[in-house]
Amino acid sequence: MGAFAAGELAEPVIPAAHLLTPLLIGLILAVAGLIAHHVPAGLNSACQAALGVLMGSYLNPASLHQAAGAVLPLVLVTGATILLSLGAAAVLARMGHIDRASATLGMVAGGSAAVVSTARDLDADSRVVAFLQYLRVVLVAATAPILVNWLLTSHAGAMGALPDTDGELGPVVTNAHQIVGLVLLAAVAVAGVLAGRAVRLPSPALLGPMLLTAALTVSGTLGGFAPTGSLRTVLFTIVGLDIGLRFTRSSLARVGRLLPLAAGCTVAISVACGALAWLLSTVERIPFADAYLATTPGGINAVLATAVATHADVSLISSVQSLRLFAMVLMAPLVIRLSGLALLHSHRSRW
Q: Which parts of the chain span the membrane according to its record (predicted)?
């Protein structure tokens, strides 16, 4: 409850406050030796399943319809972003002396909460992944309003804070009937986990519910069971607290040493995504500011808030960001496996 309340208080001043604030609280408690326990495994798995439902709900018919006219450019932009992330991860792994899985997940541009929550399932260091992911979220959230305000000089007075309702009491699922929505949420989450285990998905607790939710929402079979409001806030709080409690003094010093290199890689990816935005703007003849917000690497909530505040094309930006988020979360395990196989092949060829 304390971490939840702290996130509420920090919401106006910190991007992704309900992730970062509990993480910092857990970190302080763990490093100070005040708490030696972690979040229970069962609660962590339930949180992953609910996050999977949330991620899957982003892939809805409205997003697909909005992006249908620019499928090829969007696929190319998403593919280029993945390659940029892999390139930055390779540099970070080599120069920062961290394992490839942690570097790859840390540099994945999108779905920070979902990526961090599954880090341990993919043999990555969740503390390093969280540090890299939230460093990018903070940088994007801090710079996007400034850059867009500069690009949209005609709307210079339109910038303002967008009220965030994530932490408000009220609906906890998107269904008008909350009990029905919660029952559907539990059913889809459990069915997704079981299906994910049956087909041996990597990180079945996240990817199983995510794929099942996407299939149900795209087909129009079911809807109204995605976490929202205070429930979504609780999920983010658990993820942040779980990561924070896993820090030690040595791991804190380790991520501190990564800061200059990680910041450089993050800035490089952001600049490259800016170049992709210019190409998308030129090819599709859309305003550069809209293209920039659609392609900026991560921080979807902050990006959408900026889009609303600057009267940008929210539907376009939401659809592109949502599709990329879904693709990134889905492909992260595969990318890690492929990069690991490539590294193993490289070592064998040397011998």
A: 12-35, 71-95, 131-152, 172-194, 206-225, 259-280, 325-344
Helices vs strands, H then E, count in the chain = 15, 0
Q: pLDDT band at 197, cuts 50/70/90?
A: very high
Q: CA 146, 329, 132, 165 torsion: positive or negative?
A: positive
- C-beta neighbour count of 339 within 10 angstroms: 18
Whether the predicted pLDDT of 307 surpasses 90: no
Q: Which H helix or E strand runs over 320?
A: helix 314-350
* φ, ψ of residue 311 in degrees (nearest 5): 60, 35
For residue 149, pLDDT beyond 50? yes
SS3 of residue 87 by DSSP: helix
Nearest one of 310, 282, 290 to 153, comparing CA atoms = 310
Q: What is the pLDDT of residues 54-96, one digit of tens each?
A: 888 877 777 677 666 677 787 888 788 888 888 898 899 999 8
pLDDT at 102 over 70: yes
Token pair listed for 156: 């210079």
117 Cβ contact list (under 8 Å, min separation 6): 44, 47, 48, 51, 206, 239, 242
Q: Report the C-alpha gap between 3 and 22 in whole angstroms.
A: 5
> Which residues have CB under 8 Å from 241's CB, separation 6+?
3, 22, 23, 25, 26, 39
Pick the range with the lowest mean pLDDT from 240-244, 271-275, 311-315: 311-315
Residues 6+ apart with CB under 8 A from 248: 30, 31
DSSP, res 163 = P
Cβ contact 20:240 at 8 Å: yes
